[in-house]
Amino acid sequence: MRSTKASAGPPLDDRTTRARIRDAALELFAERGVHGTSIRDIAGRAEVSAGLVQHHFGSKDGIREACDAHVIDTVLRQAEQAGDGAAASAELLASMYAASERVVRYLARALVDDSPGVGALFDRGAELTAQWLTRSWPERYPAGAEVTRQRAATMTAMHLGTLVLHAHLARWMGLDPLAPGQAHVISAAMLDVYTAMSDYLASETGVKIRRALAEYQDDLKGRKATR
Amino acid sequence: MRSTKASAGPPLDDRTTRARIRDAALELFAERGVHGTSIRDIAGRAEVSAGLVQHHFGSKDGIREACDAHVIDTVLRQAEQAGDGAAASAELLASMYAASERVVRYLARALVDDSPGVGALFDRGAELTAQWLTRSWPERYPAGAEVTRQRAATMTAMHLGTLVLHAHLARWMGLDPLAPGQAHVISAAMLDVYTAMSDYLASETGVKIRRALAEYQDDLKGRKATR
DNA sequence: CGCGACGCAATACGATCGTATAGTATCCAA
DNA sequence: TTGGATACTATACGATCGTATTGCGTCGCG
């Protein structure tokens, strides 16, 4: 049924009814979260019966796992192509934006909806960032050191923050950064923020702030050591 | 009942049973999201009956609004005290961490659970950041300009990203940045990331990247103008 | 003393949820 | 031709949800 008969052979996977259901789930999970979406909602958007959703994915958790798997597959595939050039996470993000809007929107929600699979994606991004830090400043960020892990994780969270909080950015900037072709706005803005902060930290005030924080941390470390 | 009789007169608000219910709601909403939390869950954690929750807040949406109002009140109160020194958002974040762990954890979830009230908090943070940008670089970030709005919103999202993604940071760094007394780890890491990126952007590669992006944006602008 | 107001629990209700089951149509292989 | 997968719909069931209702005890105040 549903004709088009397309190519002759194997169940190529995509654009099948199963894929349409999965895409509907991706969209609704991204919009309302997993808890806020019912199987009947998904069936409605995919224009099939609720029973069919269950037939293809077994359970609601099955749909979620299928969504996670599809997103992970897409992201990792893009990550390979993006190479490991400098600022890996920024490029990776950009290529993902271009790959599939649906996947990116789901990813943005899944990062705070604690899906175990998508959590591994954060880890992968943080790992790439850590490697980049070590490559750029080997003596400052040794591989595996605590400081390297902390900086890499924080930087990853900052970059992904612009993804996760896209709704607020859209409201405040008057344009949706997840809409097709708008990703560069965020990339440019992040780069510009780094540039501005670079100036700021070189200023008199910036030097003072850095020194104050360094002293505070030394103090903290000293107190911990003598405790 | 519940003795202590405390002060004589009016329902002073806090530590009343009503406040205990609200705190339980704050915790559960933060942990599982609004959709993932039932009124009976809240009643269970507050050790009261489900009917009492309804009696105090009217409906589930009423509880949510009460949580939002309490968080907004707490945050704004902290924002006043924190002054408007440099890097306002960082200081504001730090003082909030110290004020109430429960409030911060709820805020982290509410920022991606689209609560209208908490959305206004993002706006307030972005506005403070925009003002700081304009004060620091008046010619580069004029008040009200599009570039100022974009940079301020992006910077705010980057900083709040470390809040919203705290679970991933906790997993990757081996310590919960929202635990009492751990906020400085993120502050220090963010500052260090800015410092590192400052070095990077001054390097040969960094200059090349910035030039490439500038050309890309000029190209984009030109194409839009001649279209 | 009495009588509302309030804090609180218990129960009941309709709606909706995830899921199980039964049934129909279609198509490929023996 | 037939028979069993496969794709798909329809319906039903038990659990849980938000909410409304009712009732009980305990104050404060006339």
Commentary on this structure:
The structure is a homodimer of 227-residue chains. The first copy, chain A, has 227 residues and is mostly helical. The first copy, chain A, is built from 11 helices and no strands. The first copy, chain A, has helices at 17-32, 39-46, 50-57, 60-81, 88-99, 101-110, 116-136, 146-164, 166-173, 183-202, 204-226. Mean pLDDT of chain A is 87; it is low at 1-13. The interface between A and B is large, with 70 and 70 residues. The first copy, chain A, binds a DNA duplex (30 and 30 nucleotides) through residues 1, 17, 38-40, 48-52, 54-56, 59-60.
The name of the CATH topology of the largest domain in chain A is: Tetracycline Repressor, domain 2
Largest interface: A-B, 70 and 70 residues
Class inferred from helices and paired strands of chain A: mainly alpha
Helix and strand run of chain A: HHHHHHHHHHH
What Rg of chain A is obtained from the alpha carbons, in whole angstroms? Answer: 22 Å
- Average pLDDT score of chain A: 87
Subunit arrangement of the protein: homodimer
CATH architecture of the largest domain in chain A: Orthogonal Bundle
Number of extended strands of chain A: 0
Number of domains of chain A: 2
Strand percentage of chain A = under 5%
- The residue ranges of chain A in which pLDDT falls below 50 over 5 or more consecutive positions are 1-13
Q: Helix coverage percent of residues of chain A?
A: over 70%
User: Any idea what the CATH superfamily of the largest domain in chain A is called?
Assistant: Tetracycline Repressor, domain 2
The largest pleated sheet of chain A is described as: none
Tally of individual helices of chain A: 11
- For the termini of chain A, the CA-CA separation is 74 Å
CATH class of the largest domain in chain A: Mainly Alpha
| General form of chain A | elongated
